[in-house]
Amino acid sequence: MSEAVSKTFPVEQSPHEVLARVFGHAGFRGLQEEIVNHIVGSGDALVLMPTGGGKSICYQVPALCLPGMGVVISPLIALMEDQVAQLCQSGVRAVALTSNLGRADSQAARGAIDAGELEILYVSPERLLTDSLLEQLDRSEIALFAIDEAHCVSQWGHDFRTEYRKLAMLADRFPSVPRIALTATADEVTRRDIVDQLRLERARVFIASFNRPNIHYRVRAKDNPKRQVLEFIKSAHPGEAGIVYAMSRKSVDRMAVYLEKEGVRALPYHAGLDAQTRTRNHQRFIMEEGVVIVATIAFGMGIDKPDVRFVAHMDMPKSFEAYYQETGRAGRDGLSADAFMVYGLQDLALLRGLMEESTAPEAVRRVEHRKLEALLGYCETPRCRRQVLLEYFGEQIDPCGNCDTCLEPVELIDASRETRLVLSAIHRCGESFGTRHIVDVLVGKNTEKVQRFRHERLNVFGMGHHLKDRQWQGILRQLVALGMIRVDLENHNVLRLGPRDRVMPVLREEATVSLRKDAGRPAPKAKTRAERKAAIPYEIALPEDRALFEALRSKRLKIAQAQNLPAYIVFNDATLVEFVRQRPSSEAEFAEISGVGKSKLERYGKTFLEVIALS
Description:
Blueprint: H1 15-23, H2 32-40, E1 45-48, H3 55-65, E2 69-73, H4 77-89, E3 94-97, H5 103-115, E4 120-123, H6 125-128, H7 131-138, E5 142-147, H8 170-173, E6 179-183, H9 188-198, E7 204-207, E8 215-221, H10 225-236, E9 242-245, H11 249-261, E10 266-269, H12 275-287, E11 292-295, E12 310-313, H13 320-327, E13 337-343, H14 345-357, H15 362-380, H16 385-392, H17 404-407, E14 412-414, H18 416-428, H19 435-443, H20 448-452, H21 469-481, E15 485-488, E16 494-497, H22 500-507, E17 514-516, H23 543-563, H24 567-570, H25 573-582, H26 587-591, H27 598-613
Helix pairs in contact: 2-3, 14-15, 18-19, 19-21, 23-25, 23-27
């Protein structure tokens, strides 16, 4: 239970006063002010805002402005506890009513609710819907209900959670209390479903820009993915915190061991580990600096760690929404970060197979297939990746200058002849073989399988000897992305021709095909932050500035360890960078820096000013 529960409420203040006093920010970002004012005016809202875009401000500030207690409904204990720890550091009386709360603290929290002493209560949908808590809330003054991760309510969402759909009852039971539903990603169908399921028909919809300009996007074809990810980490982010996603538990375990052997502090996280190990590894990632978590998608939705400097994917995620959510866990502090992914046709085949085995309705599976195809198109695009990513969410931007295709422009070539060779090889092999065999036929490899089926007699045999195996594999990936080839999952991933209206014009030489020139070429090593353009600078160039930054980090870590808190809850890296840049010499100057509210000024001002003065 928070030590602040026994204090009295402050007088109500305006949103700007709360933002400055509690959170230490001089102004709102983007749509935050408009959303906050709407909620304070007792309006309902559906908010789509990217991870790291400041969603929590949209309900925390109104909860502190309005009379009564804000109730935040969240799906994960880790997320709730993290936000409560940050709020308590800022002087807010907040509690997460979870199974991790001891009996005495739980009773104290329930008593504080009855006494009207809490400002913000975090609770899971399951706990909220218990009769005893609902009856207690009936007796309480409620400022608002905030439903976080609202995509969980939707049958179309990418993280369906049944209990969320019962939250529609809040509209009847608390008709005068404003409700705000928030999510980082939801397409138009999912948005309509959220509105319907939560009965938010009168809610105003706010859609913030999905652009995260501080994230550098880089995608490469698979060519020993473990080595590719290792080289990326060592060249761009040595000693920094990051997340590596892999599709299977076995891959996670192997990658974690591999990284450890190569000198990277890495820990595994997946549902196959016992609860104690998962908790310990999660805590080390949160509490320590420079730890890399290797995980399945079981890890991440509750992560609020702002100093994750990279997210790497060893396999394709299942959709743009999943990719955006996962990469969005990098650079939440606004400083430069990387999203790195390697992919291959085997990923596509596996994901499609899992979708086919799903018990979801046919309509849902069709949507999932389209989403996967859109992500494959993103992987193969020669255009600015950020443009393709944002177009999926309905946004238009100019080329970003901070993705691999912008920094290393892709040259397109006329690959009509190569395309005809591929299509002919697939056709003449009876549409009954996979990628490996088709490439062998094209380059003229007289393998045992080629001889067994007498494919060396085909007129297409060896006609592709001018390209290497890897280049043909790249061409095949692009043709799958273009829909000219399809992978038959039910028949051992054999390659089949796409629709006649796409294939025949090319075979008849009535249409041309442009492909990436770099298809199949070895990927260049990831550039370091110093070598590439960063949208928001992170590096502190001068040695004396770097020395001060490290001294501040060291002091922050000691303070955090003494309180058993993650270091970023004291101050995040972005605030430390501002300390270095502005070098405040008084408490008044210290208080002006973003991220320093009244409570943190009182707690830490003198200590950090002493470190700065000694630099």
